[in-house]
C-alpha cells in the first residue's frame, strides 16, 4: 500500500540525459525523458496500442515515438500522431505525471495531478548555504518493502549493532529514546551525555575528549527522512541549549521510493556545517555512508525475507514505538486517501 | 493519548473535604452556580485559574457515589469561597441516566447542604509566566474556566485579552454581565459573544456581537496579527472546529491549550499524540462526561479473578501491568508501551484510562495493562 498524493524521488537529475529512462515507482512503469527546453517529462511507459514500453521507442523533438507502430505522444501524454490514421482517437493517450527538479533530484507526483504542489517537496535546510558542505548523493536498490526502511530510519538503537565500525559504539546501546509524533511524521531522538565519539565522526570533531551526542531520526510521511547527528563538547549539549560554535552538525537526507512492495530505491545526500569546499571530506563522507548503508542493505534484505517467511510470531519491543506509530499513521493516511478517491468518483 | 494520564499529578490532595453550599444562583436556563465554603470554616486552598474540583455525589438509589469534575468559575483571588457553575445535562450516552450528577445538584442540593469535594486540581491553567496576549475561546458551559482566567487577567496582569464565547442564545448564556463588567475594568480587554440562534429578545436588546458560529472569518476579524496564547474549552464538536480553524490560521500547536467538556478525544488528527510541550493535557471536564474521573483516594480496587486476589490501586503505580507485577502476578508482556498487544487482558467490570493510546483498537471488554490505569473499581481476568 502506498500514499499516492505525495512527491517521490524518480531519479537523480543527471540520470536523465538524452535518452529514454524507464523507472518503476509504486508498481507503475514510467518513462522519463528531457524535452528540447531541458524540462523533464514523465509518461506512463506503455503505448496504449499493444502496450510496448515507450522506453523502447525514440525521442522525436519534444515527443516520444513508439518503437512498434510510430504512435507519438507529447509530454502531456496526448497522442499527436497515429500513422495511417486520419483522426486520432482521444482514447489514444498515456498518463503524464507532474515532475519537478529540486536539490539535484527529480521529484515525481504519483497522485492526482491537480494536487501537485512543489511547495510540498521535502525541505532541505541549509541548501545553498555557503558555510555548509555537501556530499552529493548516491542511490541503491534494496530488496525490501519500504516500511522496513522507515522502521530502520526511526531506530537510533540499531547503529550499535549494525554499524559498529562507523556510526555506532557502546554508548548507543542503552540510552533511552524519546518519541515525538508531529504533524508530518514521527521523530525518535535522544541525547547521550559525556560519551566517546563514534568512529566515523571522531576524526572530524573540532574539540578533544568526550562529547554530548544527539541522534535525531525524523521520518515524514510517506517515506522521507532527515537524520541529524550532533556532536558537542561534553556537557555543553542537551535539548534546547545553545550549542558552542565547534559543534559538529550533519544532516543526512534519505528519500525512499517504493519500486513495488518488495523493492525500494534509496536516494541520499549529507549536509555538514564545516569544510564546505573540501572534496576530500566529501569523498570520505560519501564512502563511509555508502559503506554503512550497504550494512543496512544486507540486514534489511534478510529482514524482509525473514518476516515474509516467518514460522513463529515476531516480537515488538519498546524500541518499536516510533516505527509502529509511524506505520499506523501512514496506514490511516493511505486509507483516508482511498476513501477520498471513492467519494470523488 | 496522554491527556488523561497526566492530570493525576496536577494538584489535589487525594482527600475529600466537606464543602457547604452557601448560595445557589441561577445563571441561565441551563446553568446554575454554587458558592461553596469549607464546612468547618477553615481556609480554602488557593487555585490556579482553569482548575477544577472533583465532587463526590451519592447516586439516588443509595448504592454508592460517582465523581464529577467542575471548573472553578470564580475569581482565584477570592479565597473565602469557591464557585462552580453547573450545566444541567442530558444523557451523554444511552447507558447513563440523563445528567445524574448535574440534575442532583440542580434539583436536590440546597443552601446549607454539604458536599464532598477534592482539589482544586488540573493542568489546564493560565500560564502566568507568559507575557503574550491571551485569547480565551469557549463554547457553552466551557466558559467556566475562562471566566476564572479572565478574573486573574483583569486584576493581576496587563496582558491584552480577548474573551470569545459561543453559545445558542441569551437564554442559555451564563455569566454575561460578569464578563462585561470585567472587560470594562481596564483597557486591553475585549469580549465577543457569538450566538448561533439569537432570540427576538436578543435581537431587540443587541445582547450579542455576531450571529453564527466561531469561524475563520470571525477570528481573522477579531485577531490582529500577533503571537497569542490561546485557551480553548467546550464540547468536542466545538473544540474540533475551532482547533482546526486556529491551526489553519497558523497558530502553532504549542500555543493552544485546551480542555474538553465531555469525553476527551484527539484534536489534531495528524498528530495522534499531542507533543510534549502542549501546555494543557487535563482530561474531560465533567458536566457532560459519562465516566467517573480517576479517584486518588486509594478507594479504587483491582480484582484479579484467575489468581483470586484483590488490592487497592496505588496511585503511584505506573500502569496496571506494573501494579499486577507488584502484586506478584506475571502477566505476559513485550513492549510495555502500548504497541504490541501482548498484555491484552479481559476486563469484566470497571473502566480504565490510557496514558498511551493503544496502537490498535481493542475489542470491547479488553484492556492493555501496560499503558492504562483504573478510573473505577476494576475486575480483570488475570
Walk me through the structure.
The complex is a heterodimer of chains A (345) and B (382). Chain A has 345 residues and is an alpha+beta fold. In chain A, 19% of the residues lie in helices and 33% in strands. Chain A has 2 domains: 7-119, Rieske Iron-sulfur Protein, CATH 2.102.10; 125-332, Naphthalene 1,2-dioxygenase Alpha Subunit, Chain A, domain 1. Chain A has a 7-stranded antiparallel β-sheet. A 4-stranded antiparallel β-sheet of chain A has the order 2-3-4-9, with no helix packed on it. Chain A has a 4-stranded antiparallel β-sheet with strand order 5-6-7-8, with no helix packed on it. In chain A, a hairpin with a 5-residue loop joins strand 3 (28-34) and strand 4. In chain B, helix 3 runs parallel beside helix 4 (176-183). Residues 1-9, 92-96 and 270-298 of chain B have low confidence and may be disordered. Chain B has 3 domains: 3-121, Elongation Factor Tu (Ef-tu), domain 3, CATH 2.40.30.10; 134-260, Nucleotide-binding domain of ferredoxin-NADP reductase (FNR) module (Rossmann fold, 3-Layer(aba) Sandwich), CATH 3.40.50.80; 301-380, Beta-grasp domain (Ubiquitin-like (UB roll)). In chain B, 18% of the residues lie in helices and 27% in strands. Chain B has helices spanning 3-6, 100-107, 143-156, 176-183, 200-205, 216-222, 236-248, 320-326, and strands spanning 17-26, 31-38, 52-58, 65-71, 82-87, 114-121, 134-139, 161-167, 189-195, 210-211, 229-234, 256-260, 301-304, 309-312, 344-349, 352-354, 366-368, 372-374, 378-380. The A-B interface holds A 180-184, 315-318, 320-321, 324-325, 328-329 and B 253, 268, 270-273, 275-276, 334-340, 342, 359-360.
Amino acid at each position: 500500500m502506498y500514499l499516492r498524493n505525495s512527491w517521490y524521488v524518480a531519479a537523480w537529475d543527471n540520470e536523465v540525459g538524452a535518452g529514454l529512462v524507464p523507472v518503476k515507482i509504486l508498481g507503475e512503469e514510467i518513462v522519463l525523458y528531457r524535452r528540447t527546453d531541458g524540462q523533464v517529462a514523465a509518461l506512463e511507459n506503455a503505448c496504449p496500442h499493444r502496450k510496448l514500453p515507450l522506453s523502447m521507442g525514440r525521442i522525436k523533438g519534444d515527443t516520444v515515438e513508439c518503437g512498434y507502430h510510430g504512435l507519438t505522444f507529447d509530454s502531456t501524454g496526448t497522442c499527436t500522431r497515429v500513422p495511417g490514421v486520419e483522426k486520432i482517437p482521444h482514447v489514444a493517450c498515456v498518463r503524464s505525471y507532474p515532475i519537478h527538479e529540486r536539490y539535484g533530484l527529480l521529484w515525481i507526483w504519483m497522485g492526482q495531478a491537480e494536487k501537485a504542489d512543489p511547495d510540498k517537496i521535502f525541505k532541505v535546510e541549509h541548501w545553498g548555504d555557503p558555510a555548509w558542505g555537501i556530499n552529493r548523493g548516491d542511490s541503491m536498490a534494496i530488496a525490501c518493502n519500504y516500511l522496513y526502511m522507515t522502521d530502520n530510519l526511526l531506530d537510533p538503537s540499531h547503529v550499535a549493532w549494525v554499524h559498529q565500525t562507523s556510526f555506532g559504539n557502546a554508548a548507543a546501546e542503552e540510552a533511552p529514546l524519546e518519541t515525538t509524533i508531529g504533524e508530518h511524521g514521527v521523530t525518535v531522538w535522544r541525547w547521550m551525555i559525556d560519551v566517546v565519539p563514534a568512529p566515523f565522526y571522531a576524526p572530524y570533531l573540532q574539540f578533544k575528549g568526550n562529547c554530548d551526542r544527539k541522534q535525531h531520526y525524523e521520518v515524514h510521511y510517506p517515506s522521507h527522512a532527515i537524520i541529524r547527528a550532533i556532536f558537542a563538547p561534553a556537557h555543553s549539549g542537551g535539548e534546547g541549549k545553545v550549542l558552542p560554535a565547534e559543534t559538529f552538525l550533519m544532516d543526512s537526507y534519505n528519500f525512499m521510493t517504493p519500486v513495488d512492495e518488495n523493492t525500494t530505491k534509496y536516494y541520499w545526500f549529507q549536509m555538514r556545517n564545516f569544510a564546505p569546499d573540501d572534496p576530500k571530506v566529501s569523498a570520505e563522507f560519501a564512502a563511509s555512508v555508502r559503506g554503512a548503508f550497504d550494512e543496512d542493505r544486507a540486514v534489511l534484505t534478510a529482514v524482509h525475507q525473514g518476516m515474509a517467511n516467518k514460522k513463529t510470531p515476531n516480537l515488538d519491543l519498546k524500541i518499536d514505538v516510533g516505527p509502529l506509530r509511524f506505520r499506523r499513521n501512514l496506514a490511516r493516511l493511505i486509507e483516508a486517501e482511498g476513501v477520498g478517491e471513492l467519494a470523488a468518483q | 493519548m496522554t491527556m488523561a494520564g497526566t492530570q493525576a499529578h496536577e494538584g489535589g490532595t487525594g482527600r475529600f473535604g466537606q464543602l457547604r453550599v452557601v448560595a445557589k444562583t441561577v445563571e441561565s436556563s441551563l446553568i446554575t452556580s454554587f458558592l461553596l465554603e469549607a464546612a468547618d470554616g477553615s481556609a480554602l486552598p488557593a487555585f490556579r485559574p482553569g482548575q477544577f474540583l472533583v465532587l463526590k455525589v451519592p447516586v439516588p438509589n443509595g448504592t454508592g457515589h460517582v465523581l464529577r469534575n467542575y471548573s472553578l468559575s470564580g475569581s482565584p483571588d477570592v479565597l473565602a469561597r469557591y464557585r462552580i457553575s453547573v450545566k444541567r445535562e442530558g444523557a451523554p450516552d444511552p447507558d447513563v441516566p440523563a445528567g445524574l450528577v448535574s440534575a442532583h445538584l440542580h434539583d436536590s442540593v440546597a443552601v446549607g447542604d454539604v458536599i464532598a469535594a477534592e482539589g482544586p486540581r488540573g493542568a489546564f491553567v493560565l500560564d502566568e509566566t507568559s507575557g503574550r496576549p491571551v485569547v480565551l475561546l469557549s463554547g457553552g458551559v466551557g466558559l467556566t474556566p475562562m471566566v476564572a482566567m479572565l478574573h486573574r487577567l483583569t486584576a493581576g496582569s496587563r496582558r491584552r485579552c480577548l474573551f470569545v464565547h459561543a453559545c445558542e442564545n441569551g437564554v442559555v448564556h451564563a455569566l454575561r454581565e460578569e464578563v462585561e463588567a470585567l472587560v470594562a475594568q481596564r483597557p486591553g480587554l475585549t469580549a465577543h459573544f457569538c450566538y448561533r440562534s439569537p432570540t427576538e429578545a436578543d435581537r431587540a436588546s443587541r445582547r450579542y456581537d455576531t450571529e453564527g458560529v466561531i469561524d475563520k472569518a470571525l477570528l481573522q476579524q477579531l485577531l490582529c496579527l500577533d503571537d497569542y496564547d490561546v485557551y480553548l474549552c467546550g464540547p468536542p464538536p466545538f473544540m474540533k472546529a475551532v482547533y482546526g480553524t486556529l491551526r489553519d490560521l497558523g497558530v502553532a500547536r504549542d500555543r493552544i491549550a485546551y480542555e474538553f467538556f465531555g469525553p476527551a478525544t484527539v484534536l489534531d488528527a495528524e498528530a495522534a499524540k499531542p507533543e510534549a510541550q502542549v501546555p494543557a493535557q487535563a482530561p474531560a471536564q465533567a458536566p457532560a462526561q459519562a465516566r467517573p474521573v480517576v479517584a486518588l483516594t486509594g478507594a479504587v480496587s483491582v480484582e484479579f479473578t484467575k489468581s483470586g486476589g484483590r488490592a487497592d490501586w496505588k496511585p503511584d503505580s505506573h500502569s496496571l501491568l506494573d501494579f499486577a507485577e507488584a502484586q506478584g502476578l506475571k502477566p505476559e508482556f513485550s513492549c510495555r508501551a502500548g504497541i504490541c498487544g501482548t498484555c491484552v487482558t479481559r476486563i469484566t467490570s470497571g473502566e480504565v484510562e490510557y496514558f498511551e493510546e493503544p496502537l490498535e483498537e481493542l475489542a470491547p471488554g479488553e484492556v492493555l495493562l501496560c499503558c492504562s490505569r483504573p478510573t473505577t473499581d476494576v475486575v480483570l481476568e488475570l
